[in-house]
């Protein structure tokens, strides 16, 4: 199946490399910033195209791997062609956004965090797939199964919930690593000091349900420590608010009586 | 050095096992709930004592490993005795809380998350130590170095900042894993689906500064997706507030212009 990739970001980059590794000819790359398309195309041995209208007639699968808020606009520029499969890769975007392609369209949503700087074993990335028809789903399943051992169907609503849960488990988590990094930096302390703790926190979640291994001042409803911490964050009022709010949510979960009226 | 442990929680349990593994005789265990002291004492081959006043004359080191808000009360019950070293294990509690022991006191603060259900290589746990005198610090350093390869001095203020950064990097992170777990549970989806993502998010922080590998809708300032996610969380208003606040903090960091007046 001859493939064109629209997008040159983290998902487009990792996905196109996985496709090629699995033996699929990724022929064309387009990006909003043409130089990015040129770079990715060079890296994977494809051609870069300056305009979406330049998608070759011979392309059988077009994969849209752009920001969620750009999908509609990008999709509107893809020429409609019979027997061409159009796929987007977004968690929160419904399959219906592609319905103008009437014929064959669907979704491959990789539930993983990609950074260009980080290598990744794509075969372990959970892929959630959806197709507009059983036949589309079948084709998409064939492509996805070449890339990963963890493929399963999910409708648009399920996929959106997976995405929002991933924002908490990954994006917000990484932001909290960043806040911790900044707290240490301001005191000239190395982020290395926290790495064993971060690793162990994730390790525990590999073996346990996280709700069963919560620790910390809020879990113990230790108001003295929580108040001291909020004082320590005085030069970052926004983090004080965040600290208070998350702690309150933890207290509410593990000490439902005490949390009332606070 | 004959040791008594006051406390029977996660830190007391892991620390006393590490002490014994390193060849130190942990002789006595006390806990607010005597049955917990009995259980831990049985596990490590020590004696449980029902009252702090029962600490034997021969004990040379007393380690206070109780909740931060209980340290003062526990310390007040320890008989003052010359040449006995008193140590607490708290991040946010200043060394001064032990000053009534005039003679020798200090802190061993393990920067790690402990759960009774999770085994852990204590030799890799960063230990931050403080002593009231150079001689106390030296003794504490000797004990700590038997337990871990990663021992370094830190004053009470530095330790408190390490602790608050750890609350973000570990406790709040685990709570976000828990929110994700609950979002999936409500849809009968397995937490297994998120485990590769959690692992990779932590892996990336082992090799990069987290501020350089942030991903997600807020990082892209993708308001469409953020608004959809907030809608999806409608049955959990508290999580909507949390989602909004953290996203706002991410947008502010990576898109300082756009975040103004929002």
UniProtKB/TrEMBL annotation, chains A, B:
Domain of life according to the entry: Bacteria
Ranges where the Pyrroline-5-carboxylate reductase catalytic N-terminal domain occurs: 2-88
Domain named DUF2520: residues: 126-249
SUPFAM superfamilies per UniProt: 6-phosphogluconate dehydrogenase C-terminal domain-like, NAD(P)-binding Rossmann-fold domains
Gene3D superfamilies from the UniProt entry: NAD(P)-binding Rossmann-like Domain, ProC-like, C-terminal domain
Protein name: DUF2520 domain-containing protein
UniProt lineage: Bacteria, Pseudomonadati, Bacteroidota, Sphingobacteriia, Sphingobacteriales
């Amino acid at each position: 199946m001859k493939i064109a990739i629209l997008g040159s970001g983290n998902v487009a980059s990792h996905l196109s490399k996985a496709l090629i590794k699995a033996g699929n000819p990724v022929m064309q790359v387009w990006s909003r910033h043409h130089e990015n398309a040129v770079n990715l195309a060079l890296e994977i041995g494809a051609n870069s195209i300056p305009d979406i209208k330049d998608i070759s007639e011979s392309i059988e699968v077009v994969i849209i791997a752009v920001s969620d808020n750009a999908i509609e606009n990008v999709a509107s520029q893809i020429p409609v062609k019979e027997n061409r499969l159009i796929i987007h890769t977004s968690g929160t975007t419904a399959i219906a956004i592609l319905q103008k392609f009437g014929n064959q369209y669907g979704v491959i949503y990789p539930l993983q965090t990609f950074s260009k700087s980080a290598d990744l074993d794509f075969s372990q990335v959970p892929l959630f797939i959806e197709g507009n028809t059983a036949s589309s789903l079948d084709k998409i399943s064939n492509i996805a199964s070449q890339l990963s051992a963890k493929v399963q169907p999910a409708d648009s609503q399920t996929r959106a919930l997976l995405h929002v849960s991933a924002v908490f488990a990954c994006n917000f988590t990484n932001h909290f690593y960043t806040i911790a990094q900044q707290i240490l930096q301001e005191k000239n302390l190395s982020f290395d000091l926290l790495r064993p703790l971060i690793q162990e926190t994730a390790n525990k979640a590999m073996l346990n349900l996280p709700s069963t291994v919560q620790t910390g001042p809020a879990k113990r409803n230790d108001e003295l420590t929580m108040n001291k911490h909020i004082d320590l964050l005085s030069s970052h009022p926004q983090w004080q608010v965040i600290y208070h709010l998350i702690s309150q949510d933890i207290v509410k979960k593990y000490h439902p009586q005490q949390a009332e009226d606070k």
